[in-house]
Amino acid sequence: MQNFLQKISDKTSIIVLILILIFSGTLMLVVSRQESAIMDELAHIPAGQGYVSQLDYRLNPEHPPLLKILSQLPVFISGVNFPTTQPSWTNEINGQWEMGDQFIYKANGQNADKIIFISRLFPIILTLLLIVLIYIFSSKLIGKKWALIPAFLTALSPSILAHGHYVTTDIGAAFGFISALYFFLKYLKESTTKNIILAGIFFGIAQLLKFSTVLLIPLFIFYILIFWLIKTKEKNEKIFSLLSFKSLMGYLWKLVKIFIIGFLLVWFVYFIFTLNYPVEKQKSDTQSILGSFAGGPKTILETCVSSPSLRCLAELTIWSSDKPVVRGLGQYTLGVLMVMQRASGGNSSYFLGNLGAGGWWYYFPVVFLLKEPLPSLLIIFIGLLASLARFIKNKEKLWKRLYQYISNNFELFTIIVMIIFYWLYSMKSPLNIGYRHIMLTVPLIYILAIYSIKKWIIDIEIQQSNSIISQIFSVFKKIFTTSLKLSILVLLCLWLLLEVFFAYPYYLSYYNQIGGGIWQGYKYVTDSNYDWGQDLIRLKTFVENPPAGENIDKIGVDYFGGGDIFYYLGNKVVPWNSSKGDPKKENINWVAISVNTIASAKAKLEPGYYRDPQNEYSWISDWEKPYAKVGTSIFVYKISNK
User: Fold this and answer.
1) Among the listed residues 207, 333, 192, the one whose alpha carbon sits nearest the alpha carbon of residue 257
2) Helix (H, G, I), strand (E, B) or coil at 545
């Protein structure tokens, strides 16, 4: 009977999970139809099509290929034209932006929206796979019923709903990191050949989804060392004994196998998609891109002996770029180095009313608190408090408590370490351009929170007493307390559902109530947190159907994003920017400006940061009071002729 009831319970959990997936997937599909290409899609979409249709990796080398390839397979099957005669393909070095404009908006007639929508299908599928992965991972830790809650929180996270339907690497990073960790832990639990191969394959998949997953290498080494120490203590072996040393070498050798399998997969994929990349062009492109790393006329050996490791890697990358067998790996290391170049240089960012390029160490904690829904934050906060209370309640010495926790909860320990390590890495970086860069840790935070809340709800002791009345009272007290705590959790989940409902369809611009909501969040942070160019289709609708009594025959547009203003607005549009001055001088009474642009134009400058006064939109006095807001990210101003 118990087995029968368990089967029914398991089936019910699967049905609920399917409903969650259908709801989340439907939202992403519907919103995807309404939004124009965001900035990064203008580069990722043509790059992926170049890989698939030409087996040529000249575009967008600073990002791995897997998501771009899989997003473009259905587009390729649909029979599109890829314009390989354009100078941005034949002559330029990484001419990704111009190729995006040519491929999406010019080479295929009126099919731009179709290309963008089809391209987004695989990212949506990958997001749904991430939700399933979170459910599977959670079910191993907290059971199948409770695992539905982290899956629910992931599926309805406004940020995941937003980035989950874009052709970018952020959801790929989340899937890569978490799947690699899951199969690595599976290998540690049962060190079979099958599990080593699976761990290696998913480690390789992670590398093909986001370059930051290279951080898995030091993480896995650290995990192995801690795991070895725990096992050594359990066996009562001396850490510095020969037997213990052999055990450590065994673990490390298996880890090396995982890395070898992973990088063989990376090599194979890059080998395939550099087959038709002309050797001479790959060599010259690589030399040009890595100019800041190059070591000059020295030999590779001399450079690697006398110079920092990055310069050595750059020289090896240049050397390998025209070698048939290894030039695919050269393209991979080129991407890694490009990411390092960009991360070290920072990026102009608008944050809390200020504009700068040096970054802020507290950027990600603040953005997390502003963009994460309040019910999710409360769930995380309750889980954290419950964990701290249990830790403090334990009267053992600190090191014993830590050892007991790590030994009994090794999987949770690896999750905690990954979150802390990745947050510290991100906070140290001056590249502050979006909450999406820490988004991969959010589902893991949900798992930890629900694990802790489950213990908080269930672990209530019934007081033993000789009095039957006291025992009955204790039982009823437990039932009441458990029911109350469960009710709080259910209410928070329902609140999240309402948040998603009221934020529709503006999930990219979602901010919680502390952050001003979807309409005021731009005052705190912009860029991919709020305005990535998603509202150009909505601007087209506004221009074609202006408010009653208005007529828009010409409109100046200063647009930040991946859309083409002429494709959507035709002869009504005039490209505009601050340096052109007041458009009424050109008899243009309307101007539309992306929030990202105008907020940066009006922001206070960080010390040492310079902004050309011509770019400050001085002729717009009250920039926060436009005539209309198109979507959330485009402000429309009506310019008076008086």
Assistant:
1) 192
2) coil
As a whole number of angstroms, the distance between CA 73 and CA 559 comes to 29
pLDDT bucket at 6, cuts 50 / 70 / 90: low
- What value does the CA radius of gyration of the chain take, rounded to a whole number of Å? 27
Q: Which of 431, 219, 436, 213 is nearest to 335 (CA)?
A: 213
Joined together, the tokens standing for residue 96 give: 């990704």
Report the alpha-carbon angle 481-483-487, nearest 5: 115
3-state SS string over 573-613?
EEECCHHHCCHHHHCCCEEEEEHHHHHHHHCEECCCCCCCH
Q: What is the pLDDT of residue 308?
A: 60
What is the H or E stretch that residue 499 is in? helix 468-503
Alpha helices of 35-163 — where are they, by DSSP H? 41-54, 66-77, 87-90, 96-101, 112-119, 121-142, 144-155, 158-163
3-state SS, residue 638: strand
Whether the CA torsion 432, 434, 435, 441 is positive or negative: it is negative
Give the position of tokens 């929170």: 449
As given in the structure block, the two tokens for residue 367 are: 């953005």
What is the spatial distance between Cα 616 and Cα 601, in angstroms, rounded to a whole number? 4
Cβ atoms of 45 and 29 within 8 Å: the answer is no
Q: Are 496 and 513 in contact (CB under 8 A)?
A: no
Going by DSSP bridges, is the β-strand pair 349-351/354-356 parallel, antiparallel, or unpaired? Answer: antiparallel
CB 445, CB 420: distance < 8 Å = no
Q: How far apart are CA 157 and CA 494, in angstroms?
A: 13
Helices (H), 291-441: 300-306, 309-320, 327-345, 363-371, 374-393, 398-408, 410-428
CA pair distance 231, 193, nearest whole angstrom: 20
Q: Are 322 and 265 in contact (CB under 8 A)?
A: no
**What DSSP designation does 64 have?**
-
Q: How far apart are alpha carbons 280 and 297 in whole angstroms?
A: 19
- The pLDDT value recorded for residue 98 is 97
- At 340-379, the pLDDT tens digits run 887 776 678 999 999 998 889 999 999 999 999 999 999 9
Token code pair at residue 91: 């002559």
Q: What is the secondary structure of 414-462 as a DSSP string?
A: HHHHHHHHHHHHHHH-S----GGGGGGGHHHHHHHHHHHHHHHHH--PP
| Single pTM value for the model | 0.94
Rounded Cα gap, residues 504 and 380, in angstroms: 23
Residue 626: closest CA among 558, 541, 524: 558
